[in-house]
Amino acid sequence: MIRVITDSTSSIPADIREGLGIEVLSLVINRGGKSYVEAETDLDAFYQDIYEMVDDIPTSSQPSPEDAKELLERIQADGDEALGIFISSKMSGTFETFLRMAREVAQGHPGFKFAVIDSMTNCMELGHAVLAAAQAARDGQDLQACAAAAENTLYSGRFLFTPESLRFLEKGGRIGRAAALIGNVMSIAPILTVKDGEASTAGKTRTQKKAMAKIVKMWQEDVAACGLKNLTVHYIGSKAPAEEWVEEVINPLAGFRARVVPASPVIGVHVGPAVGIAYECAERINGKFTDAAPEVVVEA
User: pTM of the entire structure?
Assistant: First the structure.
């Protein structure tokens, strides 16, 4: 059996994870001397006082090597194979740690088979790839086919979001190529995305309302070209703006009820209050990756 593993930044709702038997290695959020295991934290409660975090942005740490190795050894002892799909290696060392631990377990148990994927993204853009792999595993496909299902989804998806303001980004969050916004005119509402493994700017408008409208336009353009398979609406901070957007705009256009899911705080605290969408198209999006692409390591 193929056991699919991801990290908590994938933001996959617990009921879906449990239904598909997806294992999760949790990152940890460190705030005010207290540590929060992300996968075990009430995210709405955590985000209640997000505005107070701007002057002391929480830090995060990746899952411990010991936790990764313990999980892998359990999978090996069960006679199963492992497929790990993780947050971009440009944002966290989780991918490298899991790969190193998988190789250690395989060294001690030469018959152990595994695959590890650097998704080059996070949140439900990563989550959709994990779901594709888990469904392939449930359908009885082999390790290579499950890894291919995840990889194809990563080429077929996009994550677009807009923060309420630039305050959190200005304070020095890990924002990659989106850093070009800082030092520029602060009275803009950017559209952010994850491009080639790091946060980047997909567009700029004057207000968040206009940014949300532009996100919808960009999403519809992708859907017109490539079809729509999956869609998740994300929020950071209050859930209310996302729920209103979903009911009034997203659901009527999608033709189904999209899930509204809090984005991983490991990502969210560097962006601040925001809304966005992560979607998977039915076909690959042209030019999805340019300078870098998901790394797929299969040792079977």
Answer: 0.95
